[in-house]
Amino acid sequence: MTSNPNKPSFNTDRSRLFKDRFAKFSITAGGIMVLIALLLIFFYLLYVVQPIFESAKVETRDSFALSNADQIVGLGVEEQTEVAFLLSKQGNVDFYSVEKKGFGKKLASLAVPLDSDVSSFAVSAPFQGHYAYGLENGSVVLVAPKFLVTFPNNERKLTPRLGYPLGEDLPLQVDAQGAAIKQFAFSHYEDKTAVVAQTEDKRVIFSSFVAEENMFSGEVEWVVERTELDIEGRVDQLLMSPDTTRTFVRSANQIYVYDTRYPSEVELIQMLAANEENANLVAAQLLAGANSLMLANDNGEVSQWFEVNTDTGREYQKIRAFETSKQPKLDIFTEFYRRTFFTTSSNGELGVYYTTSEAKLWQGKISDGPIENFAIAPRSNAALILADNKLTVLEIHNEHPEVTWSALWQEVWYEGYPEPGYIWQSTSAGDDFESKFSLVPISFGTIKAALYAMLFAVPIALSAAIYTAYFMSGSLRKVVKPTVEIMEALPTVILGFLAGLWLAPLIEEHLPAIVGLLFMLPLGILLTAFAWTKLPESIRHRVPDGAHSILLIPVLLLIGWLAFAMSGAIELWMFDGNVRQYLTNELGMTFDQRNSLVVGIAMGFAVIPTIFSIAEDAVFSVPKHLSNGSLALGATQWQTLVSVVLLTASPGIFSAVMMGLGRAVGETMIVLMATGNTPIMDWSIFQGMRTLAANIAVEMPESEVGSSHYRILFLAAFVLFIFTFIFNTIAEFVRQQLRDKYSSM
């Protein structure tokens, strides 16, 4: 049988059909997988970030009745919230189990050795963990409940003990005359103990006790200095900062602020009239860190005051206020380290607030009667309530009180700062440090770095792409285009290394030359082009079409050499030999060695290949019949380029620019190594910045997993993700509009 040559080959058609379907399926599956991957990244970031915006919760663990509730003057709980301790007026310290197993069981009762009757009681700053009894003989005894941890039979056991910071047999004689201590405040700080006390005869005495070692016997001796404070009117409350440098006396609606840094020279530095109209002060407390003073009025307002620089020096000013329960008896309690404070009222209400974010975290009624006493656990995850003749243990879920949308994106007035601002400062060496998590300066730094990089890269990349695709000869284009594209393979860590260690010092040393090049290079190129047009045609025709750019290479090298050779003379002539000093003193501009100029140049080199490659392909792909038709109608090459080629290639050119912008926004290593990583908001080209990507790279390794810092870094990554998503979406929308507009050409 002979085959018919005109009969179609079904095997070939089936094979081609299979390949087409397979390619379609593969491409579709690949696209879907990319979308799924993006969605997974999006939702994982949300999963990590979401807990920082959860509201605080307060729940009751359990409670038990107390037979001597009216005798309790102080209470506290150990770190694991397993054992609570209650201090009574008689000097006894009772320890109770408050874990679920054996809740309310009395574990021990220890007595504080006192040589006189108790007349008053005081508590130190929460993180110090000290309690003190004021006695009828004018002395004060310090005590610190402690726990010995042992592991008999591999089980954790806590044994209650009493510690004495100054020694068991060493009461501090606050009043030399021996008058009873009616109320007092104290702090034991390193080798110094200070007490401010009001005696029975209404004197207010500041006493400082400093431990000094006897050079002969080696024994520690306490050297005491006493100063009597001049207070007019009654004394309602006494407070002292943990480092003993500030003492506060609440007298009616006045707050006396004393500088007690030097006990022999105690100085009244300010008097605060802190009450509001038709309201009276009822309570005062120092916030964690002792930089802020919290004042409560009987109208339910609690205000925060801290020192601010003014024309007359540092003064306490009212910064913000919170509306709480309007009760005649309102008390304030603060956490160990965070700027959270609690309010308790006579109607059994508890309020939880965070000062810096100005957030009311939780408020609710937790007892029928007035809350007599309150204590927060060291980890701020539990609290003790003494009310209705029983002790109640509360579970507190308040992991991220400092994080709110307003704190992240609005100006915040932090302690010690002269005014509100956008500040990122996540860590410090001090325990009383307050983290500052504004995302504005690092988002600003991201935009600033990308802007300066694009200002450097876009003109160079687009000009080079247009010339290479439209004017350059084919043989030269085959060399130039791959060479530029190879630059994209250069690791950015190398560019960052060169920018930080070579380019930054070079710019600092030859700043006039760098600035001069910005003007000399364009001017030199234009003058060279003008001179070229004046040469005889016999000379100009010797250079092949599309190879004229090679003639600019020696011109550019000569201009660069002249700029650097003249740099020293220009600096001496125009800037008195020191351009950095001129910028600072005359123009008020700060010059950082690793600044935006360095980043713009270094990151511009990283972005140029991306923009150049895509834009060059777009221009080169413009159909030749369009440009040839334009030329045939009498248009010049430049008219054809501007009116035909660039318009047709505009979707691809715009995509190139947006791709370069996306690359600049997400760049990490160059910004990390070529800037000072300072999260400041300044458009100056001579100052650095900190970007979202660089901030994540720097701080993620040192952040505690699950902490506010850790989750906010993921939020920064989410913001960066949104940035790139928005840029890409806008780019695609504009590209489609341009394509629809010029596709008919």
Give the helix/strand layout.
Blueprint: H1 10-49, E1 57-65, E2 72-77, E3 83-88, E4 92-97, E5 106-111, E6 118-123, E7 131-135, E8 139-150, E9 157-163, E10 172-173, E11 181-189, E12 192-199, E13 204-213, E14 220-229, E15 237-240, E16 246-251, E17 254-259, E18 267-273, E19 281-286, E20 292-297, E21 301-310, E22 313-323, E23 330-334, E24 340-345, E25 349-354, E26 359-365, E27 371-376, E28 382-387, E29 390-397, H2 405-409, E30 424-425, E31 436-437, H3 440-471, H4 474-487, H5 492-509, H6 511-534, H7 537-540, H8 552-574, H9 579-585, H10 596-620, H11 624-632, H12 637-666, H13 669-674, H14 692-699, H15 708-742
Antiparallel strand pairs: 1-29, 2-3, 3-4, 4-5, 6-7, 7-8, 8-9, 8-10, 11-12, 12-13, 13-14, 15-16, 16-17, 17-18, 19-20, 20-21, 21-22, 23-24, 24-25, 25-26, 27-28, 28-29, 30-31
Helix pairs in contact: 1-15, 3-10, 3-12, 4-10, 5-10, 6-8, 10-12, 11-12, 12-15, 14-15
How would you explain this protein's 3D organization?
This protein is α+β, with helices and mostly antiparallel strands. It has a domain at 449-742: Orthogonal Bundle (MetI-like fold). Helix content is 38%, strand content 28%. It contains 15 helices and 31 strands. The strands form 8 sheets. Strands 6, 7, 8, 9 and 10 form a 5-stranded antiparallel beta sheet that branches. Helix 3 crosses helix 10 (596-620), helix 3 packs antiparallel against helix 12 (637-666) and helix 6 (511-534) crosses helix 8.
